[in-house]
Amino acid sequence: MDAVLSLLQSPVGIALAVLVAVAVLALVVWGVRRGRAGRDEAPLPRREEEAPERPPRAPEESIPAEPAPAVDEGVPASPTVAQAGAGAVEAPESVPSRMQRLRARLAGAGTIGATLLGVLSRADLQAADWEEIEDTLLMADLGVPATERLMGALRTRVKVEGTRDPQAVRQILAEELLALVDPAMDRALHLDPAPGGDARVRPATVLMVGVNGTGKTTTAGKLARVLVAEGKSVLLGAADTFRAAAADQLATWGARVGVDVVRADREGADPASVAFDAVREGAERGIDVVIVDTAGRLQTKTALMDELGKVKRVIEKQVPVSEVLLVLDATTGQNGLRQAEVFAQAADVTGIVLTKLDGSAKGGIVVSVQRELGVPVKLVGLGEGPDDLSPFDPHDFVNAIIGE
């Protein structure tokens, strides 16, 4: 033991001790590193929630959407009739009272006549005055051809008659405007029962067409209300099957006036099928008038023409279509005129309903749409109320514009 201690205390012993310590430390470090490497190379245990890998699946075939049931202009599906119910039914306002109130509303909205009369009554009309008149007429959506015609007539008569009397000027303006509106056009709704060879009553049919948003469905309901007030029995057909709210809206109107609604049992059904069912139901019940509301989608002109044409053909397999009423928003102006042209080509329009005519700054659309289509304005709407629909009277319209 003494010898070992003596060796460790000598320089040689100290050197040996240091070497041993370094060797031991190196072995420890090598062992630690090897253990870590072994753990890294070991496979990770699979988590219980992981599903085993599956072989790739072949792509599924795309399934085309189920097409709407086609009507080959033969026998469509049986109808779904929404009953008006036994609740309280609103009594429509009488026709004379409604027309009187609508005249008063239209008269209170006029601004065109006031501007024109103010200019025409000036002592000496200059070029700037005539430009002001022309601008006023164009802003009223009278259209360029009608404006040029009216301007020529006014220039001639003011020059020949040489009057500045307000009453005389008003009379000149009234006569020229009335000539443009054309009171000779047939504005009656022709709703006599359709002729038939059997004993059944064949109802008159009204096809409502127009762009969504113009008040078409509401107008169909209001028209039903007008006809009920005149003592006619009415049935509504909800052929706008692409807008679920349209059928619900029509059913609401039906409940208000005690009129049933024929509607599809699902959204996206064939509109022609609903129209066919509505007319057939009306004939079986002995209904006087069937009003069919249609979709107003304008994705493509061709699709619109095809759809409306099919609806009309299917109806006419049972009865002739009595009226095709085009519903236009009077405030859309010349844009409304472009819409009218498209629908006039898609269906044989027999009359126009102008809604929102309580702002006569756009009242000139009455003249321009009639001149372009050769079709009369038959009904006008002047508000949101249930009785704010009335036959169009050219004299009342002109008198309201010029403030008489």
Characterization of this structure:
There is one protein chain. The protein has 404 residues and is α/β, with parallel strands linked by helices. The protein has a domain at 80-100 and 185-402: Rossmann fold, CATH 3.40.50.300. The chain has 14 helices and 9 strands. It has a 9-stranded mixed beta sheet, with helices on both faces. Residues 39-72 and 74-78 have low confidence and may be disordered.
Write the layout of secondary structure elements.
Elements: H1 2-9, H2 11-41, E1 80-82, H3 95-107, H4 112-120, H5 127-139, H6 144-161, H7 166-181, E2 204-209, H8 216-229, E3 234-239, H9 244-257, E4 261-263, H10 271-285, E5 289-294, H11 301-315, E6 323-329, H12 334-346, E7 351-355, H13 365-373, E8 377-381, E9 389-391, H14 394-402
Parallel strand pairs: 2-5, 2-6, 3-4, 3-5, 6-7, 7-8
Antiparallel strand pairs: 1-4, 8-9
Binding site for GTP: 210-217, 293-297, 355-358
Main location: membrane
Family: Belongs to the GTP-binding SRP family. FtsY subfamily.
- CATH level-1 class of the domain at 80-100 and 185-402: Alpha Beta
Radius of gyration computed on alpha carbons: 40 Å
CATH superfamily of the domain at 80-100 and 185-402: P-loop containing nucleotide triphosphate hydrolases
- Number of distinct beta strands: 9
What characterizes the major β-sheet?
A: 9 strands, mixed
CATH architecture of the domain at 80-100 and 185-402: 3-Layer(aba) Sandwich
- The CATH topology name of the domain at 80-100 and 185-402 reads Rossmann fold
State which percent range the strand residues make up. Answer: 5-15%
Mean pLDDT: 77
Chain oligomer state: single chain
Binding site for GTP: 210-217, 293-297, 355-358
Domain SRP54-type proteins GTP-binding: 376-389
Enzyme class: hydrolase
Transmembrane segments: 12-32
